[in-house]
Design a protein that fits this description.
alpha+beta, 4-stranded antiparallel β-sheet, 378 residues, 8 strands
C-alpha cells in the first residue's frame, strides 16, 4: 500500500473532521505523507494509561522537521477545535451514550489523536496552537456549557500537548482548564501532570501553583452543584438521582437530597441520604455524591489552613489574579470573604481597606491586594 493510499485509508467519509481536512491531508509530498501515516498509528499505544511511546515520539519529532510539517499539524488541530470537534455534532442521545452505548471509533480517530499529540512538539508560534488545543480539550472533556461528545483519549492528548508546548500561553490555558475540568474525568490526571510540568519549566513558585490549582469540584460561582440526569444537572455528571451540594458563606457544606415528589432533605457531614433513598435511586450515585461533598469539605479546610499561613507572608497580588484565584473561586472565595483585605492603587501609595461587598470592578488593573495586617486601624 502506497503512502498516499494509506493516508486516504485513515480518513473517513462519515467523519466531519476527515471531510474538512481531506484536501489538505492527501496528495502530500512523500515526507509529509509519511508524517500523516505515522501519526495515524497513535492508538497502538495511546490508551487509558495516557503514556506516549518513546520511539513514536522520537520519530514524530524527526518527521516534524520536514518543510510544512508543523503547519500541517497546526492546521489539523485547528480543524479539530472547530465546530463540534472530531465527532461532528453534539449528541442528541447523550443520556443513552453516557450509559455505555457507543459507536465503533472512526478510522480517523487514531490520526486525530496523533495530530493532537504531535502539536506538543511544534515550536513555531505556539500561542495560537495552545488556544486551539484548549478548545479541543474543553469540548472533549465536557468543560463547556454546551454538551459535546466526551472523548477521554482526545482530551488526554490535548492536555499532554499543552504540557509540552513552550511559553506562557500554554500555561495560562492549563490554569484555566484545571479550573474547569472536573476531577471525575479520567484524563484529568494528565492535566494535573501537565500543569506541574509546565509550571516547573517556567519556574512558577510552588505557592502560586498551590493557589492556582485549588479544585473547583464543579461548583458554580454561587457555591452550588446541581446533580441529576444530563439536562437536569451538571453536564459532566450523569446521575440517577437529584441532589444539590452547596458550600455556604460560613464554609459549611450541605447536600440536599431531592425525592421524586420534590421533597428535600438537607444533610451535613457525613451527608447521609434519607432512609430508603438508595433503594429508590442508584446506590453508586448516592455514594458518589457523598464522596464529592466530603472532598469539597476537605478542600474548604485545606484553604482555611493555606490562607491562614499567608498572614505572615506579606504577599501582594495583582488585582486581576487575586480576583480570579481568590475572590471568584467558589471554594477559596468562601474563605477569602471571611478575612480582611486591603488594596493599593499604585506602588508607593498607602493601602486602604477593601470592601468585598462593593463592586470590585471599580478597582483599576494596577491595584495590588494583600491581607490586612493584624492591628491595622479601619
Amino acid at each position: 500500500m502506497s503512502e498516499s493510499t494509506s493516508v486516504t485509508h485513515l480518513l473517513d467519509a462519515g467523519n466531519a473532521w476527515s471531510v474538512r481536512t481531506r484536501d489538505r491531508l492527501t496528495g502530500l509530498p512523500a515526507d509529509l505523507a509519511q508524517l500523516v501515516c505515522h501519526l495515524g498509528t497513535a492508538t497502538e499505544f495511546w490508551n487509558w494509561r495516557y503514556k506516549v511511546d518513546t520511539a513514536w515520539k522520537r520519530r514524530t519529532r524527526q518527521l516534524l522537521k520536514a518543510d510544512g510539517a508543523e503547519d500541517l499539524v497546526r492546521y489539523a488541530v485547528r480543524e479539530l477545535a472547530a465546530g463540534h470537534s472530531f465527532h461532528g455534532a453534539t449528541e442528541p442521545d447523550h443520556v443513552i451514550r453516557e450509559l455505555g452505548q457507543t459507536k465503533p471509533p472512526s478510522p480517523a480517530w487514531s490520526l486525530a489523536i496523533g495530530c493532537t499529540l504531535a502539536a506538543g512538539w511544534v515550536r513555531q508560534d505556539p500561542a495560537p496552537l495552545a488556544a486551539d488545543l484548549a478548545v479541543l480539550a474543553r469540548k472533549t472533556a465536557q468543560a463547556m456549557e454546551t454538551f459535546y461528545r466526551v472523548d477521554d483519549d482526545l482530551a488526554g492528548a490535548a492536555f499532554a500537548s499543552l504540557g509540552e508546548l513552550p511559553g506562557l500561553a500554554a500555561m495560562d490555558e492549563l490554569w484555566d482548564l484545571h479550573y474547569w475540568v472536573s476531577p471525575s474525568r479520567h484524563p484529568q490526571r494528565v492535566l494535573v501532570k501537565s500543569v506541574k510540568k509546565a509550571a516547573a519549566r517556567l519556574g512558577v513558585p510552588p505557592h502560586e501553583v498551590a493557589e492556582r490549582t485549588v479544585p473547583r469540584h464543579g461548583l458554580e460561582k454561587d457555591g452550588t452543584l446541581t446533580i441529576g440526569w444530563i439536562g437536569h444537572g451538571a453536564l459532566w455528571w450523569n446521575a440517577g438521582l437529584d441532589a444539590v451540594i452547596t458550600v455556604h458563606p460560613s464554609g459549611q457544606v450541605t447536600v440536599d437530597w431531592i425525592e421524586e415528589d420534590g421533597t428535600t432533605l438537607r444533610t451535613t457531614a457525613p451527608f447521609r441520604s434519607p432512609t430508603g433513598y438508595k433503594k429508590r435511586t442508584w446506590p453508586q450515585d448516592v455514594d458518589g455524591v457523598r464522596r464529592h461533598a466530603k472532598g469539597i469539605q476537605a478542600t474548604v479546610a485545606e484553604e482555611r489552613s493555606r490562607l491562614a499561613a499567608l498572614a505572615d507572608d506579606k504577599r501582594t497580588w495583582r488585582w486581576q489574579d487575586w480576583r480570579r484565584f481568590y475572590l471568584d473561586h467558589p471554594v477559596t472565595g468562601v474563605v477569602t470573604r471571611a478575612l480582611s483585605w486591603e488594596y493599593q492603587l499604585a506602588e508607593g501609595e498607602g493601602f486602604h481597606a477593601l470592601d468585598l461587598d462593593a463592586d470590585p470592578a471599580t478597582l483599576p488593573p494596577t491595584a495590588q491586594i494583600r491581607l490586612r495586617p493584624e492591628g491595622t486601624d479601619s
